[in-house]
Amino acid sequence: MVEPGRHSTPAASYDAPHVAANQRLLGLVERALERAVTEQVRPPMGMYAHPSTAENAAFDRAVNEISSHARRLDLRAEELLLAMKQAWSHLAPVRARHLGDRDGDVLAQLVSHAITVYFASRDVRVDE
């Protein structure tokens, strides 16, 4: 029986090391995305500019680091994506200064790329 005021959730069934791994990933994701976002040059007001090769590379490095770290921590893809979305939310002020109108597009691209990298790294391990 569940005590009053306590809720039984799937998250409650995780062991402490798993919760700690998720927290470590969230911290890493936030730092990696913040570094990548601060490398972006916000276009002038009302102007949409395509990101430079260097700006794209900053996000690629962040996604590669995040995905490989999630794999090393033995976390599921869903946990990786959740950490990315939480970190993205925490970075709202930084994103506003550096991304401007590109903000929503960037998150969609990051999520898509992270899924690709995460599963590609898993497939490489299976083949080894």
How would the global form be characterised?
Answer: globular
The DSSP helix count reads 5
Beginning-to-end CA distance, first to last residue: 46 Å
Low-confidence regions: 1-9
Helix proportion range: 55-70%
Main β-sheet description: none
- Average predicted local confidence, pLDDT: 84
The computed structural class is mainly alpha
Give the total of domains.
Answer: 1
What is the string of SSEs from the N terminus onward? HHHHH
Beta-strand residue percentage? under 5%
Radius of gyration: 17 Å
Per DSSP E runs of 2 or more residues, the count of β-strands stands at 0
Write the layout of secondary structure elements.
Elements: H1 16-38, H2 53-72, H3 77-90, H4 92-98, H5 103-127
Structure write-up:
There is one protein chain. By secondary structure, this protein is mainly alpha-helical. It is built from five helices and no strands. It has helices spanning 16-38, 53-72, 77-90, 92-98, 103-127. The protein is globular. The N and C termini lie far apart (46 Å).
